[in-house]
C-alpha cells in the first residue's frame, strides 16, 4: 500500500505542471462561461465568477512557484517569493468567494428570502484576519523565507497561514449543518463533501512537500461549483417548467369552469329570453324571428278564428274605482284568460284596455278545427268570469264575439315589436263582439257553419254590422249552469270561512 501511494505521489509530482495547466485552463473557460450564462442571479454569478478567476490566478501562482523554486538569481527569487505569497493569497480569496456563494444559497432559500446568518459573517472575519496576517508576514519576511538557492525554508510560522483558512472552512461547514433545512438536500451534501475534501487535502499537504494538494483541491472545488450551479439551474428550469405546466393546467380548469358557468348562465338567459319571446309571439314566429332577425315576418292563413271580448259597462265601472283597483281587476281576469289560452292552445294576440283578442287556426290547413277550439275557449272564459266574480266585490260581465275567415299575421316594428293580425275577418269579429249580449257568445255565420255539428246555436239573428250591412249572427245555446254556480258558491263560502 505504501509503495502504491509513493508511486502515485511521484507520478503527481512529475506531471504537476500538466495538471496545473489543465486546471487553470478549465478555470479560465468556466469564468468566461459564467459571464455568458443567463438565468443565474447576479449575486450568485458574481460569487462563481470570482471563484473561477481566483482559481485561475492561484494556478498561475502555483505554476510559477514550482518552476522557479531552486532557480538561482535575483529575478527568480522575487518570482518565487511573490508566487508563494499569491498562492496563499488566492486561496484566501477563493474561500471568500465560496462563502459568498453559500451565503447567497442560504439567503435565497426555497423557504423564502431571509437575512444572512451570523456564522457566515464570522467566517468572513476569520478569512480577513488570515489575509491580514499573510500580508504582514510577507512584508516582514517571516513567511516561507528562501535560502541562497531559492529553496523555501519551512519554518513553524507557516502553520499560521493554514489555521485561518481551515478555521474558516470549518465555520462554513458548521453553518451549512446548522442551516441545512434552508438548502436542498443535494446542495447540502455536495457542499459538505467538497469542504471536507479540501480540509483533508490541506492536512495531507503538510506531509507531502512539493505537492500543493490543498490548493489544487480548491481549484477543483471551483470547477465543481460551476457544474453544481449548472445542475441547480437545470433543476430550477425544470421546476419552473413544472410550475408553468401546473399553472396552465390550473388555468385550463378555471377556464373550463368559467366557460361552463358562462354557458350555463347564457343558457338560462336564452331560456328566459325564449320564454319572454314566446309570451309575445307564437312559437313558429319566434323561431323564425330568432333565426332571421332582419327578416320581415308575415303570413296569410286561409281559415283562422278570431275572438274579441269586452267588459260590459267598463267605463262606468272604472270611474268608481281607484287606479290600483282597476289595474288589479284587469290583471286578475286577464291572467285567468292567459292561463286558459296556454292550456287550450289558443294564441293570445293582445289586450287593448279592457278588450281581449285571441286567434286559433293559424295553420295552412283550411279545414282546421280552430272554430270549435275557439268556442270551447270562449265558454271557458265565461266560466272564468263567473269564478272571478266570486272573489271580487265588482260584478264583471263580458261580451264575446267570434268570426272565421282568412287573415294576415305578422310582426310589426324593430323595437318593442308586436305580433298582430289584419283583415276583414278581424273587423267582423270585433263587430260581432260589440253587437253581442252580456255573458253570451256571439258568432258569425262562418263560425256557425264550422261548429254547428258540435254545438247548438240560436239563430240566425240578423245583425247590422257597420260597414257590412245585414249579416246573420248566432248565439251559442246557453247551458244549465246551476250545478256550476252551486259549486262556485260552496267554494266561495269555504274560502271565506277559512
Write structural notes for this entry.
This protein is an alpha+beta fold and 498 residues long. 64% of the residues lie in helices and 14% in strands. It is built from 15 helices and ten strands. It has helices at 2-14, 16-36, 42-68, 74-107, 118-140, 160-178, 185-205, 213-280, 283-291, 314-319, 323-344, 370-389, 424-434, 445-451, 482-497, and strands spanning 108-109, 112-113, 298-311, 347-352, 355-360, 398-412, 418-422, 441-444, 457-465, 469-476. A hairpin with a 2-residue loop joins strand 1 and strand 2. Helix 2 runs antiparallel to helix 3 and helix 7 runs antiparallel to helix 8 (213-280). The termini are far apart. Mean pLDDT is 79; it is low at 481-490.
The SSE order reads HHHHEEHHHHHEHHEEHEEHEHEEH
Determine the number of helices (DSSP H or I, runs of at least 4 residues): 15
Determine Rg (CA atoms, Å).
Answer: 54 Å
Q: Return the structural class.
A: alpha+beta
Largest pleated sheet: 8 strands, mixed
Total number of β-strand segments? Answer: 10
Kindly report the average pLDDT value: 79
Q: How much of the residues is beta strand, in percent?
A: 5-15%
Distance between the termini: 115 Å
Shape: rod-shaped
The helix fraction, in percent, is 55-70%
Unreliable spans are 481-490
Features:
64% helix; single chain; rod-shaped; 498 residues; alpha+beta; eight-stranded mixed beta sheet; two-stranded antiparallel sheet
Amino acid at each position: 500500500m505504501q509503495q502504491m501511494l509513493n508511486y502515485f505521489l511521484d507520478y503527481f509530482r512529475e506531471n504537476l505542471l500538466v495538471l496545473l495547466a489543465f486546471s487553470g485552463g478549465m478555470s479560465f473557460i468556466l469564468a468566461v462561461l459564467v459571464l455568458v450564462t443567463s438565468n443565474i442571479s447576479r449575486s450568485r454569478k458574481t460569487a462563481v465568477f470570482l471563484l473561477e478567476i481566483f482559481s485561475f490566478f492561484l494556478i498561475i501562482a502555483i505554476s510559477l512557484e514550482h518552476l522557479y523554486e531552486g532557480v538561482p538569481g535575483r529575478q527568480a527569487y522575487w518570482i518565487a517569493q511573490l508566487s508563494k505569497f499569491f498562492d496563499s493569497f488566492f486561496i484566501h480569496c477563493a474561500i471568500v468567494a465560496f462563502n459568498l456563494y453559500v451565503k447567497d444559497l442560504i439567503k435565497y432559500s426555497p423557504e423564502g428570502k431571509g437575512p444572512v446568518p451570523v456564522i457566515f459573517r464570522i467566517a468572513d472575519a476569520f478569512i480577513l484576519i488570515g489575509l491580514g496576517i499573510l500580508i504582514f508576514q510577507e512584508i516582514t519576511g517571516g513567511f516561507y523565507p528562501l535560502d541562497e538557492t531559492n529553496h523555501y525554508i519551512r519554518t513553524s510560522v507557516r502553520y499560521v497561514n493554514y489555521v485561518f483558512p481551515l478555521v474558516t472552512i470549518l465555520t462554513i461547514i458548521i453553518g451549512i449543518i446548522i442551516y441545512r433545512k434552508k438548502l436542498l438536500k443535494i446542495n447540502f451534501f455536495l457542499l459538505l463533501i467538497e469542504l471536507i475534501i479540501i480540509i483533508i487535502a490541506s492536512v495531507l499537504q503538510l506531509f507531502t512537500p512539493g505537492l500543493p494538494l490543498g490548493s489544487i483541491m480548491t481549484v477543483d472545488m471551483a470547477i465543481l461549483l460551476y457544474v453544481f450551479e449548472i445542475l441547480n439551474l437545470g433543476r430550477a428550469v425544470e421546476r419552473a417548467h413544472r410550475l408553468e405546466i401546473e399553472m396552465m393546467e390550473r388555468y385550463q380548469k378555471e377556464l373550463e369552469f368559467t366557460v361552463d358557468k358562462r354557458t350555463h348562465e347564457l343558457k338560462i338567459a336564452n331560456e328566459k329570453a325564449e320564454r319572454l319571446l314566446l309570451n309575445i309571439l307564437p312559437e313558429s314566429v319566434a323561431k323564425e324571428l330568432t333565426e332571421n332577425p332582419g327578416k320581415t315576418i308575415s303570413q296569410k292563413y286561409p281559415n283562422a278564428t278570431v275572438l274579441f271580448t269586452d267588459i260590459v259597462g267598463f267605463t262606468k265601472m272604472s270611474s268608481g274605482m281607484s287606479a290600483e283597483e282597476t289595474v288589479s281587476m284587469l290583471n286578475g281576469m286577464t291572467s285567468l284568460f292567459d292561463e286558459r289560452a296556454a292550456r287550450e292552445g289558443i294564441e293570445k294576440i293582445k289586450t287593448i284596455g279592457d278588450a281581449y283578442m285571441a286567434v286559433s287556426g293559424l295553420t295552412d290547413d283550411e279545414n282546421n278545427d280552430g272554430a270549435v277550439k275557439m268556442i270551447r275557449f270562449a265558454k271557458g272564459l265565461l266560466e272564468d268570469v263567473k269564478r272571478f266574480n266570486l272573489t271580487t266585490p265588482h260584478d264583471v260581465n263580458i261580451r264575446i264575439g267570434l268570426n272565421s275567415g282568412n287573415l294576415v299575421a305578422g310582426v310589426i316594428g324593430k323595437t318593442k315589436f308586436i305580433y298582430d293580425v289584419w283583415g276583414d275577418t278581424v273587423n267582423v269579429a270585433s263587430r260581432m263582439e260589440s253587437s253581442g249580449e252580456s255573458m253570451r257568445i256571439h258568432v258569425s255565420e262562418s263560425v256557425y257553419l264550422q261548429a254547428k255539428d258540435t254545438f247548438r246555436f240560436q239563430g240566425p239573428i240578423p245583425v247590422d254590422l257597420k260597414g257590412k250591412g245585414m249579416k246573420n249572427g248566432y248565439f251559442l245555446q246557453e247551458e244549465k249552469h246551476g250545478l256550476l254556480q252551486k259549486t262556485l258558491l260552496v267554494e266561495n263560502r269555504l274560502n271565506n270561512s277559512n
